[in-house]
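Section 5: illustrative case.
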């Protein structure tokens, strides 16, 4: 009987296992954790955002420089396919007000439970606490919790070991060195969808840690391209949230160049001229805070951010103030470490795989998910591409078996 080894029990690996098993292949999944899909389950704690409902062009744009390579994979298994797959597991989905797609239960646990049941029915074996340690003659080597080695051979292999974020959940990037030793080009893994370090004053951090900056637009000074919009969160040591994640690659480029100044637009729906006109309505007895609150409807944290950027002395000229409101400078010193990132950038170069995601240097070996060099912001784009590449890798493996 034809056999397949899937290395990694996250969404990409489990999806590859399902596709292979449905085709009659005997599949064994190896995962180094006591239970697979841990990162997937954690992602669902606050509401499992599976994919997004926006139009194709906008959706593809979220993948930046990898959009062209991922586009055909998203055609093979796109957002509607993912929704249909969920429905087949008894988990209907709905589109939220932001266009994001969630399961009706809003959680990952029911979906994962139904998925494991389906995989068991298909005969998929899951070897838990089985850590991949490298290649053996004609196969793969795995170690158990006691360090005992087992060599495994199969007709095809799909690697889906993830990036290096949330390493306590399984994906620690330990695969990079052995792949590089095989001559496979791997871009360094770096934090993506991650918070930023900002050296706030104690006064600002003490007063506004955990406060949201609502309905803002973020951009990086001197860096063209679309910004991030939505609600950002002030943390003790910086800033995080969807608008930050949306421009993560631009932020990294600026940091690599030596300076990153984030510009926070506190009123993105209004122009400088419109803000100036409103600010001209200052009453003689208005304090600076009352002036900004009354004319621009700024909240406490927005006003405090203006003071933070101006060293406590706010401009009194309406035009100068309007300009500041549209681009409050926030100096970023670094990203948070990769251990605190939601996902990673970097991975196996696209040039190393063919359109079926088979490694050119290793026929019969396929790669899926975050091991590949792509990134995307949160909002359903990460999971969608992980599922899609899992499907494509598995179909590629089936085609290779039938060659």
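Designed sequence:
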């Amino acid at each position: 009987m034809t056999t397949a080894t899937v290395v990694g029990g996250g969404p990409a690996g489990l999806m590859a296992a399902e596709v292979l098993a449905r085709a009659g292949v005997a599949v064994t999944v190896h995962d180094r954790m006591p239970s697979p899909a841990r990162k997937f389950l954690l992602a669902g704690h606050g509401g499992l955002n599976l994919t997004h409902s926006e139009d194709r062009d906008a959706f593809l744009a979220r993948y930046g420089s990898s959009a062209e390579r991922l586009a055909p994979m998203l055609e093979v298994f796109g957002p509607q396919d993912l929704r249909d797959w969920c429905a087949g597991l008894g988990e209907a989905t709905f589109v939220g007000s932001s266009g994001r797609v969630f399961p009706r239960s809003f959680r990952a646990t029911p979906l994962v439970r139904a998925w494991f049941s389906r995989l068991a029915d298909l005969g998929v074996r899951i070897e838990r606490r089985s850590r991949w340690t490298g290649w053996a003659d004609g196969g793969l080597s795995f170690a158990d919790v006691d360090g005992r080695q087992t060599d495994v051979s199969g007709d095809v292999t799909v690697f889906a070991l993830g990036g290096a974020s949330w390493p306590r959940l399984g994906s620690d990037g330990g695969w990079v060195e052995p792949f590089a030793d095989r001559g496979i080009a791997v871009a360094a893994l770096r934090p993506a969808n991650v918070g930023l370090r900002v050296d706030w004053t104690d006064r600002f951090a003490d007063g506004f840690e955990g406060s949201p900056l609502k309905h803002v637009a973020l951009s990086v000074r001197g860096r063209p391209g679309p910004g991030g919009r939505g609600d950002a969160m002030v943390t003790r040591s910086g800033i995080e949230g969807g608008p930050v994640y949306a421009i993560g690659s631009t932020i990294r480029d600026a940091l690599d160049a030596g300076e990153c100044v984030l510009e926070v637009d506190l009123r993105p729906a209004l122009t400088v001229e419109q803000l100036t006109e409103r600010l001209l309505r200052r009453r003689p007895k208005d304090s600076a805070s009352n002036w900004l609150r009354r004319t621009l409807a700024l909240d406490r944290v927005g006003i405090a951010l203006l003071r933070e950027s101006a060293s406590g002395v706010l401009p009194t000229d309406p035009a100068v103030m309007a300009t500041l409101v549209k681009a409050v400078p926030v100096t970023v010193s670094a990203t948070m470490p990769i251990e605190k990132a939601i996902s990673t950038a970097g991975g196996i170069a696209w040039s190393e795989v063919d359109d079926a995601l088979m490694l050119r240097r290793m026929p019969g070996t396929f790669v899926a998910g975050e091991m590949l060099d792509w990134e995307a912001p949160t909002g359903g784009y990460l999971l969608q591409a992980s599922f899609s590449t899992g499907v494509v890798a598995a179909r590629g493996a089936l085609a290779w078996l039938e060659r």
